[in-house]
Amino acid sequence: IVGGYYFTAAQARAQDSALKDTAGYDTARLIKARAQVESEIEWCADVAFVPRFTVVQIEGNGTSELVGPAMPRRVRWATINYGTNTRALTAPEIAALRLERSGEISLLAGSWPEHSTVTLGVEHGHDRPHPKIVAAAIILLRVRMNTGKSNFPDRAERYQLSEGGMMFLSMPGAYKIGIPEVDAAIATYGVRIPAV
Fold this sequence. Notes:
Blueprint: H1 9-15, H2 27-45, E1 52-59, E2 65-67, E3 72-82, E4 85-88, H3 91-95, E5 98-99, E6 104-106, E7 117-124, H4 131-145, E8 158-160, E9 166-168, H5 180-189
Antiparallel strand pairs: 1-7, 2-6, 3-4, 3-7, 5-6, 8-9
Helix pairs in contact: 2-4, 4-5
């Protein structure tokens, strides 16, 4: 299940005039880079900005609550595995699950067996990306399609200007792209909780 993409190739070309050059930015390469960009943004934001489907395995903890992907929409199927025994949840059991925006998936009656492996097929994510996420994704697309072509070394933290000044560059991190406008959109519309 894929509920679409953040933008089409035509939208990217319309928003960024450099991408209009179909010889330098052929559509197949642009589409491949779009998939990479969407994946990077969703990793940093900890949420999908279009509907997605994923299979998650979570260890049962003896409580009624588990944490799956953010913005769960629907659990399609679920199994509980205790060693060599596997049991599929019934349709009424799946319908009775409570889904929270945070990713919490709760049983309304009973608990997830401790030390079991709970496997869930989950639809998750937003209906559509916010326009600022789309704009940020297109900025990141252009950067990814031009890696190695910049006047700045790709791994530089700072750059000595010919006039004598120093320019400090934004740096990527585990959940940060390193492009201020992109990182701002992710921080605004994502759900990842910063580590302390």
